[in-house]
Structure formats: C-alpha cells, structure tokens
Design brief:
Blueprint lengths: L2 H23 E4 L3 E7 L4 E2 L9 E4 L5 E6 L3 E10 L5 E12 L4 H7 L4 H18 L4 H5 L3 H16 L4 E12 L2 H51 L2 H16 L5 E4 L9 E4 L2
Antiparallel strand pairs: 1-4, 2-3, 2-5, 6-7, 7-8, 9-10
Length: 271
C-alpha cells in the first residue's frame, strides 16, 4: 500500500506534463483570420508556405503563431492638408483594405503586426497631401471630390501593394474649408446660378421675339400675295357666285340686277 503513491506520482506528473504539452501544441484560428508560423529553431518566420487557415492546428510548443485578420477592414483618418493656393483644408477619409493572404508571412517579417500604422496610414496622408495640393478650394468644395478620391486611392494603392497590403477603396467622407472661404464660394456659386437663370430668361425672350417677328412677316407676305391675286374680274365672279347662292335660299327677297356698285346685283329682303 505504501508503494502506490510512489508509482502514482510520476504518472500524475507525466499526465500533467502531457496536458501542458498538448495545450501548448494546439492553436485554433478563428473565422476571417490566418496564422503566421514562427519556428524558433528552424529559420524563424515561415514565408515560403501558405499561412495557417481557419480551424484547429497542432504546433510544436517551442514555436509561435501570430494571428492576423484577413477580412476586409476599414480605417479612418482625419487630416489637415493644403490646397494649391496654400489654404488649410480638413479632410475626413477612410480606406478599405486587407493584408495580402499569400504574403502574410512577409508582411509579418518585414512590417509587423502594426502594419496599418506603419504603412497604410502614412501612405494615405502622403497621397492626400499630394493630391489636394493640386486643386483650389473651389474645386475641392464643388466638382472635384470624386476625382480627388480616385487619385488618392490610385496613389496609395501604387505604394502599399508593394508592401503586402491590398487596398480596396479610399472614401473621402468630408472636406472642410475655412468658414470665410466657404461663405465666399457659396456666394459666388449663388451669383453664378442667378446669372445662368438671367441668361436663360433673356435667351427665351429673344427666341419668342424672333418667333413673333417671323410669324408677322409670314402673315404680311401672305396678305400681299392674296391682295395681288384678287383682280376685279375675280371679285366680280365671287360676287356673282355669292348672289346665286343667296338667291337659292327660301327667304323672301328682291334682286335688282346691275344696281350695285361696279354693276353687281343688289339683294333686298324682308328678313
């Protein structure tokens, strides 16, 4: 009976060590994540193999696994930049990005887990300063926001793609100008709108005047042609035709032939 504890103690210790070994040798990669393996005695960070995918993995206890989120993420940045004429502009932007999956080991080895602050944000700020510096406050406030957004995206993407970061989109959410500049631009835009409305009304009035002139000229020409075509013989013929038509009506009347002006008949009736 005294020998049982002596035999059971090493077994117990072995079981505990086995549990610790298993605990240290397993890792679970969550949904939307990937793991970078670091081999302590075999070359450090693994860059020539795919990263560890989602699920359960067995890893030697002396090695380490660094977990990265590989889904699309969003980062926000507020910046103060200068326009082409040196005015300070506040820019509120965000970027959609994710690490390049196949290059995750290289990203960890060269840039580290804090790659967003080290690589992505400084690049966005640099691109924004470069792009905004090409435009005036008026352009930034009105018609050029989409163009600026596209240019910041293209300049940022060109740099971060070589740094193992996949940039999906850059969004310029707000452009804030100094109050005095904003008021001046809005006043100028209102004046331009009023000028366009006045020009539209003036053009409309000119077109209406031209239409009336053309209509009057057409009527004058038509009257002239009609006047020239009505000779004495035609008028007499028309008068005779009208007289004959009146004579056919059932009303009582007296027709005096040749008593009217120019020899036209007169029709006298009691109705």
């Amino acid at each position: 009976m005294e020998r049982l504890p002596k035999i059971g103690l090493p077994i117990l210790i072995g079981v505990v060590l086995l549990i610790i070994f298993i605990a240290k040798s397993t890792i679970t990669i969550g949904s939307g994540e990937a793991g970078v393996l670091y081999r302590t005695f075999a070359g450090g960070v693994v860059t020539d193999e795919p990263p560890l995918g989602e699920g359960f993995h067995l890893v030697a206890p002396w090695n380490k696994v660094y977990t990265y989120e590989v889904r699309q993420q969003e980062v926000f940045e507020k910046m103060q930049v200068l326009s082409s004429n040196g005015l300070e502009i506040k820019l509120d932007a965000s970027a959609w990005f994710q690490p390049q999956y196949d290059k995750l080991g290289s990203l960890h080895q060269e840039k580290g887990e804090n790659y967003v602050a080290r690589i992505l944000l400084p690049t966005i700020r640099s691109a924004a300063r470069s792009v905004v510096g090409r435009y005036t406050p008026e352009q930034l406030y009105s018609s050029k926001r989409d163009v600026i957004q596209k240019e910041i995206y293209e300049e940022t993407k060109k740099i971060v793609e070589d740094q193992y970061v996949q940039l999906n989109e850059v969004l310029v959410r707000d452009v804030t100008l100094p109050p005095t500049i904003k008021e001046a631009i809005e006043r100028k835009l209102r004046q331009e709108q009023e000028s366009l409305e006045y020009e539209f009304k003036l053009t409309k009035a000119q077109k209406e005047a031209e239409r009336q002139k053309i209509d009057a000229e057409g009527k004058a020409v038509a009257n002239q042609i009609l006047s020239e075509s009505l000779t004495d013989k035609i008028l007499k013929e028309k008068g005779i035709q009208a007289t004959l038509e009146l004579a056919k009506s059932p009303n009582s009347k007296v027709i005096v032939v040749g008593s009217g002006k120019d020899g036209m008949p007169l029709i006298l009736g009691n109705q």
